[in-house]
Structure formats: structure tokens, C-alpha cells
Amino acid sequence: MNILILSWRDPKHPLAGGAEQSVWEHAKGWHDAGNRVTWFSSRFRGSVATENIDGIKIVRNGYQYLGVQVAAVSYYFRNIKNIDLVIDQFHGIPFFTPLYVKKPILALIQEVAGKVWLLNPLPFPINFIIGAIGLIFEPFIFLMYRNIQFMTGSKSAKVEVSKFGIPLKNITIVPHGVILPSPLPRHRSYILNRKSFVVTYLGTLAKDKGIEDAIECFSLLNKTGDYNFWVIGKPETDDYFEKIKSKISGLGLNGKVKLWGRVSEEKKFELLSKSHVLVNPSAHEGWGLVNIEANAVGTPVVAYKSSGLVDSVKHGESGIFVRDNTPLGLFNSVNEILKSDSRYRRLCNTSKKWVKNFEWRISRKLSLKVVEGRNQNIG
Hints:
- By secondary structure, the chain is of the alpha/beta class.
- It has 13 helices and 14 strands.
- Helix 1 crosses helix 13 and helix 6 crosses helix 11.
- The C terminus is likely disordered.
- Pfam families: Glycos_transf_1 (PF00534).
- GO terms for molecular function: glycosyltransferase activity.
């Protein structure tokens, strides 16, 4: 079978995240099963037009926010004879494939955008205008997909998609997996220095991911003890990065917050293993891969109780949810698990057990059944 994946970013894109990694892992499984897979996505600075990775052909054309959708139409019709199935990946704006694709379609979605439309990084008032347009028209976008099969990775996402009129029987849950280095670094945060703590944020530096709330939490923690704060991830835009640095400076955290930027996979897990806590104040997620990655090295997560995160954090085992989704609530919850040695040690141990629930070997087999048209309602 010839499978065409339409996605606004590929795994090499500077802003690629958990969603792209997830689709890539599924795509590798489809390729290994004997299918031919092509991934069509947007260009980025320094990218090449085509390349082959892990047997998957990557084709790049168009600007990521809308141009790639237009370019995809042309690519589809030029290659229509060599396409058996189209994977339409939603990331805010989908590829509108029901309007022009007559081949079988599988819609792949990690999360419904919802209020995240209003948290885009564009300057005011453009951000508000675009956000309002997205929020208003998102339900109408889903209307054209009401007869299309969907695949998603969490119960939260399935519920949200169904609220837009997609029948539950058309939505299949295929749980996510997690890729871990071998060997995993040993969790060393607890034995480093119990008088000094490392609290970490991992993810794209974007408003909807909660980086500003994380920094405000850091400021509150900094007044109560000896803390170091690590921020791992690439900013969504240069302008927003300047705002983040200004906020850090304004709260008197220069020298206390280490901005690591985007790091290698090996370095990421090394830093997580040296962190006492990962904070995740994201407003909305499809799942929350970073939580599982932290848990894999025994680092508990303190997270907002928001869509997606409720699927990737098990309260009392892999971490805890804050009582109210505010920087103060985040601060109180971090204090709560760090003030008790016995509770903290228990969370470190049970976090690693939680990770065993997520295996790509199993997830790939399930998604292969979906693309082959079998067991459309796995979850």
C-alpha cells in the first residue's frame, strides 16, 4: 500500500515535538510492514526538498502555517496514481482532504486546538484576530470530516473530537509509546544535594505550553530556598523568546534560570535524571510525552489538570496534579512533594513503573490494523 502523510511539520523541523515524533513512529511501523510511506510537510530554513530517512520519503514544500496545505493539493494530484491512503494530520489547521481526496482518508489528531487558538505567538492585534477566527471556525472544519475515520492517542482527545460531531465509532484510540535511550541514565537528583533542588520545564517555549506560569512558579520557589531552574526547549518565535528573557530578568531570576535551548535526546534524559521535579503547566495537550520521558528516569511530574495531561500523569504515582491551574498552585504542589522524603522517594519509584504502560511495539501493531482497515474501533 502507498501511504501519503500530510503533516505541517516533519521530525527535522526546528519546532517539531511530540506529535511529529508520534506520527513518525507509526510511519516506521507501517513501512516495516511492507508499505511505501511518503511524508509531505513544510519547508524550513536549511531544509532540503526531498530526503529519505528510515525508508520513509520526505517531501517538503510550502510555508508551515497555511502554504503547506495549498502545496499538498498540487502534490496529491500530481501523484494520485501512486496513492492508496492519505493520512491527514490535524495541527490546528488540517489539510481539508475531504474536499479533494477521493482515496481513503485517515485523520490523525493529537488534540483539538480549542482555546489554544487564542494563545498563538502572533503580535497584537493579529493574534486576537487569528485566534478568534480559529476558535469560531474550528467546529465547521470538523463538519467536513464527520464521515472520516479518526485515530488519536488519548481518551481526552477522543472525547474532545466527538464534541465536534465526529461519531465515537469513527474515533480509534491507539495509545502512544515512548522512545528511551539505552542505557537510561540513573536518577541522581535525590543524592546530589537535598538542600538544593533542580526544578525543570521541558517543551516548546510557547504561551499555551505554560512557560510563563513556570517562570512565575520559579520566582515563588526562589524566595523559599536554594533552587536552580532549568528550561529545556526551543522558543516558538524569537520575539516571544525576548519576552521570556525579559520576564526572567524582571523577576530577578538572572543566574538562577538556565536556558538550555533544544538539546540532543541523550542530553535531555541526562538533564531529566538530574532534576528533582518536572513542571508541566500546559493549558492543553494531546497527551504529554515529556511527562513520560521524565518518569522514565524516575523524575516525578507536577502538572496542571488539563486535557491530555490527565492521560499522561497518574496522580500519586507518576506525579501530582495541582489543585488549581495557577503559578501559585504549581508552587504549592512542588513544595508538597519535596518536603517529604518518603513521599518523594515513593514517587521516584512508582514513576518508572508507570512508564511500562507505553510501548511503541504495541502501538505500531494497533495503528497498522487501523491503516489496513481492520479493527477500526480499537479504543
